[in-house]
Amino acid sequence: MRKLPNLIWLRSFESAAQHLSFTEAAQELGLTQTAVSLHVRSLEAELGCKLFTRAARRLTLTEVGKAYAYSLRQALGDMAFSTASLFGAEAEQMLTVRVQMSTAGLWLAHRLPEFAALHPGIPVRLVTNIWAGSDAPENVDVELRFGSGSWDGVAVKKISKERLVPICAAGGCKLSPERLRRGPLVQILGFEDMLLRYLNASGLAPAKEVARFAVDTTVAAIDIVAAGGGFAVVLERFAQTAIETGKPITIAGEPLAVDQAHYLLDVPATASNDAAKQLFEAWLEASFQ
């Protein structure tokens, strides 16, 4: 595969192609006319193809030049948009919220349009991780975690109460704890204790070798259960959201309250986002009630 030519050569060609003038391209780029002309010739030499037909005081694109200018203009536009989105002034005003992947996909993402309707002037950037604390440190304005609430070096605020439920494919029968323990089961890595807690409440433990699948997110577990792949124990709010959004699953047993919950971490917001952070966290806390 041919390596990408020098970016300044590409930018010089794109500008010259747009203006059909090396002089105007030089003015746009803050270069000399000679420099732009040399950049374009270097690009043509690198590609082994003429991009312009040069005549006295007249510059026209070849057919290959026209095709290349069109695709290059799109690519450079995408680069400019991405740079502005990630690093520009608008990005600095965006509220960055980090949450575990299952909470994002099975709860928060479905409620963010409500926040946007209430506060249309606050753009939200949602970033996810699989397990709490599994990502390297990153500048975030709001961090939401599910777990015991005991994480080293950080203050937390509990904002939810959670219950566990067993689920099966839609149309399946009710699952007694004894039927659940025999499987087949879909285990969620990092949250195996959910199944244990649910069965232990009835004085039971999982039977040996009944886990048919092991996955790293509740999202994947629910999809496998929906396809008839087995049973799982998940947070009741996740199961309800999945059902509301059309997943063919059924809550197949009684709920069990657990001491694990969703917590807001005490992370400092950027000065420009402090008010937005307070609004978002207040809305988030109310949404969990």
The low-confidence parts are none
Q: What class, by secondary structure content? A: alpha/beta
Q: Describe the biggest sheet?
A: 5 strands, mixed
First-residue to last-residue Cα separation? 56 Å
Order of helices and strands: HHHEEHHEHHEEEEHEHEHEHEEEH
Task: Report the count of strand segments.
Answer: 13
| Percentage of residues in DSSP E strands | 15-25%
Q: Estimate the mean pLDDT confidence.
A: 86
How would you portray this structure in words?
The protein has 289 residues and is an alpha/beta fold. The protein is 43% helix and 21% strand. It has helices at residues 7-19, 22-29, 33-47, 63-87, 89-93, 101-106, 112-118, 177-181, 192-200, 218-226, 236-244, 274-287, and strands spanning 52-55, 58-61, 95-100, 124-129, 142-147, 156-158, 162-169, 185-188, 211-215, 232-235, 249-251, 256-258, 261-265. The strands form four sheets. Strands 4-3-5-13-6 form a five-stranded mixed sheet. Strands 7, 10, 11 and 12 form a four-stranded antiparallel sheet that branches. A hairpin with a 2-residue loop joins strand 1 (52-55) and strand 2. Helix 1 packs across helix 2, helix 1 (7-19) packs across helix 3 (33-47) and helix 2 packs across helix 3. The radius of gyration is 28 Å and the shape is elongated. It starts with 6 loop residues before the first helix and ends with a helix. The mean pLDDT is 86.
